[in-house]
Amino acid sequence: MRVGGKWKYLFRAVDKHGQLIDFMLSDRRNTQAAYRFLRKALKAMSDYPPSSITTDKLASYPKAIQRLQKEGLLPKVIVHRTSKYLNNIIGADHGALKRVIRPTRGFQSIKTARATIKGFEVMRMIRRGHCALTQPGVIGDIRLVNHLFGLAT
Question: Considering only CA atoms, which of 30, 71, 34 is closest in space to residue 53?
Fold first, then answer.
């Protein structure tokens, strides 16, 4: 995606049910960026460590996974899968997000891109029923959004 007229890379992690775990925008798609993203996603799922990680065939992922294993942040028995067919869940989900982002015609800064993508992701989570609302209906949606974005109720 384009941010400030330059290409940025959107890293996204979803679980096997298609629920968003985390996302990150980066200038580069290298080992350091893959490591930062995987570490961030693992922190978000610290109560439920993954049994396998499915990625595309980017050479940076195995190096990042090995580094996380050496640091003890990821179990040594983790299975890293790179089959393009196993990656269909994230690919389909990513395509749906791109369709929502395309009409925005790009972003001016990383800060606005993150905020906008976070908003899109929250609304998609609500629409799919991936969030436990404390109250049904619009009021529950509003309270969830206020909670996720740190707004006053």
Answer: 34
